[in-house]
């Protein structure tokens, strides 16, 4: 799943509630640059940040962020593997017998906990 790199509704909700990125960051336990990146669709929020956003705004995070940003909401694989770590994670999956070749049914059959955009 690719980061959307588009303005997220979260930005609208922050201003509608009269908050700033810094106030949201303080409330959810991160820095303001991370909040700004979430608002622009440039970073995945952690499961803890997702829960904190839901508590802060009193609404489901699905209203604030695109589904593409919520693939780690259940915390199955956090933090996301990047760089060489992603290669090692792929080897680990293969060792456990998980098919990691990208065919059309891969995500639904091998990683059913992974939430994709259309689901």
Automatic annotation (TrEMBL):
CDD domains attached to this UniProt entry: HTH_XRE (cd00093)
InterPro entries found in the cross-reference section: Cro/C1-type_HTH, Lambda_DNA-bd_dom_sf
GO molecular function: DNA binding
Superkingdom as given in the UniProt entry: Bacteria
SUPFAM superfamilies per record: lambda repressor-like DNA-binding domains
Gene3D superfamilies, per the entry: lambda repressor-like DNA-binding domains (1.10.260.40)
Annotated protein name in UniProt: XRE family transcriptional regulator
Species in which this protein is naturally found: Microbacterium laevaniformans
């Amino acid at each position: 799943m690719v980061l959307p790199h588009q303005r997220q509704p979260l930005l609208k909700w922050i201003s509608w509630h009269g908050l700033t990125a810094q106030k949201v960051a303080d409330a959810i336990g991160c820095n303001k640059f991370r909040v700004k990146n979430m608002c622009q669709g440039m970073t995945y929020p952690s499961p803890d940040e997702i829960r904190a956003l839901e508590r802060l705004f009193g609404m489901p995070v699905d209203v604030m962020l695109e589904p593409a940003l919520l693939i780690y909401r259940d915390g199955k694989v956090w933090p996301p593997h990047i760089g060489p770590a992603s290669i090692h994670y792929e080897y680990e999956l293969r060792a456990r017998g998980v098919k990691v070749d990208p065919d059309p049914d891969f995500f639904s059959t091998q990683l059913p906990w992974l939430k994709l955009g259309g689901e």
